[in-house]
Amino acid sequence: MSFIEFKNVCKMYPGSNKNTVDNFTLNIEEKEFIAFVGPSGCGKSTTLRMIAGFEEITGGELYIDGKKVNDVAPRDRGISMVFQNYALYPHMTVEKNIGYGLKNMKMPADQIKQKVDWAIKILGLEEYRYRKPNNYPPA
Ligand SMILES: Nc1ncnc2c1ncn2[C@@H]1O[C@H](COP(=O)(O)OP(=O)(O)O)[C@@H](O)[C@H]1O
Ligand SMILES: [Mg+2]
After folding, report:
1. Residue 130: pLDDT above 80?
2. For the structural domain made of 4-76, what CATH number should be given?
3. N or C: which end of the chain has fewer CB within 10 A?
4. What is the pTM of this model?
């Protein structure tokens, strides 16, 4: 058993008729350092998002520490993801930080709320929603 096991993992985005990630099989051991390298658009971020649980796996199986996680919420996977462009705005609450990119894209407020609600729920951030990033322990 490896720490992370991809077994024929596929990702087909809605509206597409071909796999963006196609039958991907890889075993990663605990403490092993792995880098995905490839041209823009080849599916690196999609693969990472499937490990984190932000993206639905549409084929195959993904195991973390021996447990199949295809249908396990991100907050219950025991892993985290650090983004390349790391930026948290200290003067904004957690919910405003999460929604900031969408606001910048001029997405309507009701849609932003829907997406932020979803993200907060799957990440288990409900109790931090109105806190600011450095506001720990709670004031
Ligand atoms: N949410 C999405 N919906 C539909 N297609 C997407 C989505 N995200 C990425 N893609 C497409 O999937 C392919 C792989 O994208 P991505 O995983 O971001 O590649 P990489 O990180 O290797 O540059 C690209 O063709 C991209 O346009
Ligand atoms: Mg990428």
Report:
1. yes
2. 3.40.50.300
3. C
4. 0.81
